[in-house]
Every structure is written in C-alpha cells, then in structure tokens.
Amino acid sequence: MGKLKFFASVASTLVTNLGTLRKTEKLTAEGKLAERDAIMNDFADKACAKFFRSANINISMEGEENIPAGTCVFVANHQSMFDALVMLDFAKNNRPCGFIMKKEFEKVSLIKRWCAMLNCVFVDRQNPREAVKALKAASANLERGVSMVVFPEGTRTKDYPHISEFKNGAFKIAQSGKYPIVPVVLFDTGARYEAAGKLTGGTVHIKVLPPVTLSGTDRHEYKQAAADLQEIFTRELAAFHNV
Known about the structure:
243 residues; alpha/beta; Glycerol-3-phosphate (1)-acyltransferase; seven-stranded mixed β-sheet; 9 helices; 15% strand
C-alpha cells in the first residue's frame, strides 16, 4: 500500500468519525473523562484493526507477561510513522493511554483535536520551558491513571537497526519508582513502512522487556537509566537483525 493511500485512509477515518470526536470533546468539557476514555478506547480498537487489515499487517509479540496491569510508562524505539498506531494497539490493555508527541503535530487542527481526546501531550524539545510544561502534563496524566507512551529518541531513526540517543524525559515522568518503565522493542516497523517507500504487508515483531523501576529523583539516575536502556535496545535490535 502506498503511503499516500494509507494516509488517505487514516484521514478518512478521522473525518468520518467527527461525531465521535465532538461527543468526546463535550464529555471532556463536562469533566466526564472516564466516559470519554471508554469511547476513545473503542474507537482506537476499531481504527487499528481497520488499518492493520487494510495494510495486511500482523503483530507478533514476545514478552507480553512483562506488561504490568496498572499505569506505566511505555518506552519504545522509533523507526517509522507507523509506530504510533502499533503502540496504540499494543497498549490496548493499559488504556487509557496517551503519547508524548512532537509539537509539529499540534499544527494540524484535526490531528490535535483527536490526540487531545487520546490523552496526548505535545512537547517542544527546542524550548526547555515548554518541554517542562509538557512533562508536567504527562505526569498529571499518570496521576489520573493514564499510561504514557514515549519515544525517547525524539524522532524517527531511519538508520535501523541502529538507534539514536535516548533522552531522559520518559524517565523523569516515572516519578521515583511510582510508575514502572516498560521497554518495548519495535524490530521491523521501519522495514514495513519506510524501507520500500511504501507500507508493505507482513509481520511487525515486538518484544516487551522486564519493567524498570527508578528508586529516586536524582537526575543522574534518570540519565543512567536512559543510557542503560539504550544499550539494551541496541543489543536486542542487533541480535534480531543479525548485525
């Protein structure tokens, strides 16, 4: 499937479900967040199933037993634009679940509105003050029982299976061990989406590693945790791709 066709399918789904969007926005204004989240969970399930079916994508997961039952911070490597949908579907048993996303996505009104209903937080990494506000918003989501998905590389790394430096924001919002950090290795979303210049059908392999719990609030611990997980992800990707 060509990328334009796939994006057209995504856009069509968002537009044809504007009634759902307006309903959830009304519930949000009324403070009925649990009801809003239930509707969005159902929408996410159906949308992901539709997209994967149309693109002939299957998901193979290893380590599912490492996913905790409660609120957590999912940390995943970032290979393609398709990763968000994969992680949205992946986190279906931990919803409500939001994403920390790049500020650029906020510029598209329709995407911004849908993402807001999905508990997403936009971050401007070039503006430290705004980045702090975004991390506080993500922490507030966790306090409300909303798990968060973070791509610590900050942007897609197309030189897969290699990865870029892990930023430590994801580890800050885990708040002194209050919420486990769950590493999620995406092995071949880049191959399914980016490599051929189109979305190719096939299997997306995922491996969930044992959760990491921080013991304190010291910034050195955050940085060390980011570096340690980056090394673990690197080893997992190298082993999978035999490089």
